Structure formats: structure tokens, C-alpha cells
Amino acid sequence: MTRRRFLTISTAVAAIPVLAPLAAFKVDAAARRDLRFRALRDGAPIGEHRVTFRSDGDRLTVATRVDIAVKVLFITAFRFRHDAEEVWQADRLVSVTSTTNDNGTLLRVSGTAVADGFRIISDDGPFLASGRLLTSNALWDSRIVREQRLIDVQHGGEIGLVTKVLGDEQVDTPQGPVRATRYHLITPYYAGSVFHDSDGRWVKGLLELKGERIEYALAA
User: Fold this and answer.
1) Cβ distance 130 to 113 under 8 Å?
2) What is the DSSP string of 29-86?
3) Dihedral through CA 189, CA 195, CA 197, CA 203, nearest 10?
4) pLDDT of residue 10
5) Which domains does the chain carry?
6) Cβ neighbours around 114 below 10 Å, total
7) Sign, Cα dihedral of 206, 209, 214, 219
8) Model-level pTM?
């Protein structure tokens, strides 16, 4: 991998044990339930993260919408908005479109499955990624913790991923407390923890983005 956006893991990070990648991708049925998280900073709401699913036979459309604004003394210090639509068919990503406003920097990405992989186009130009990868938006699927590379649907190309299991914790949800496994994730653009319950459903997040620590609290 020669693309500059691919994460080169340092010696210290490479020492973190990683889980073996899956041979094939298949979406858990439990993970197809729509998700809405409240984004919190120091306990105060700063936005939301939504994931919605639409199934049609073996075709699955996944829409992701993130809208976060951090204000300091009534002034917006940081704004992040991301809208994406991914289409999966027969356990393979067949198309993606996304737009991102990263604190004023506008990014657009599109991609389509081709015979020898997945062709993704961004402001940096076209890039041929592996056709069997998950995307950087796939925090909703517990299989992400077994991956070492992702298709980057915000910037284009591929990025690296390192995952470490931190153990089980109790997580409060609208349906009551659940036991969930916590995983620490590191990518070039975000890091932090995701929590998946025994059904593989994403139920909580603690993410570090642009120097801010943001909690994702499940609202629906």
C-alpha cells in the first residue's frame, strides 16, 4: 500500500494484539436495527449520529448521518457533518456516496464495485481498494473489530485499523442496562472505544475526534 492515507502503525501500536480478520463479510441481523446516538461532550449534548437500514432481498442500504457542533462561549469552535449512503449486496459493498463538512473543509467521495475490487473516487483522485473490506462508517457492525483495513468513505482510499479488546462493561440503554464488550480502535482520523452487546449491536461509543472526547449515548 503506497497511498499516503494508509496508516503506518508505529512499533508501539503494532505491539497491541489484534483480532484475526474475517474470511468473508456478512451483516448480523441484530445489527440492522436503526440506531440513534446523542453526542455528548462533558455530559452536554452537541449533536447526534444516526444509522438507518433498508433491506430488499439480499440488498442492504445503510444511511449514516453525523451532525456535531462544539461551542465555546456561544461560538462554534468545531463543526462536523457527514452524510453517507452505502449499498451492500450478497455481502459485498457495491456502491457508496458521501459528503462531509469537516470544520469548513468540504469532502466528497463516491465508489462502485468493479471486477477486481472497489473503485473509490475522492478529491485526491481514484483509488482501487479491496472489494472485501468494511467501511470507516461500519462501527454499527461488530465485525469491524476483526478488520485491519477499511475503505475510507470520508477521505477516500484505504486506512488502517488496530483493535484491542478491553473487556465487558454494563451499558445503560433506553431498554435497560446490558452487558457489552468494549473494544479500543485506532485509525488515522478517529480513535476511542465502541461497545457491542451479545447480539452484536452497537450500544455506546467513546470517541476522540479533533482533540475532543465525545460520548455516544444510545437514544433509540
Assistant:
1) no
2) SGGGS-EEEEEEETTEEEEEEEEEEEEETTEEEEEEEEEEEEEETTEEEEEEEEEEEE
3) -80
4) 30
5) 11-218 (2.50.20)
6) 10
7) negative
8) 0.83
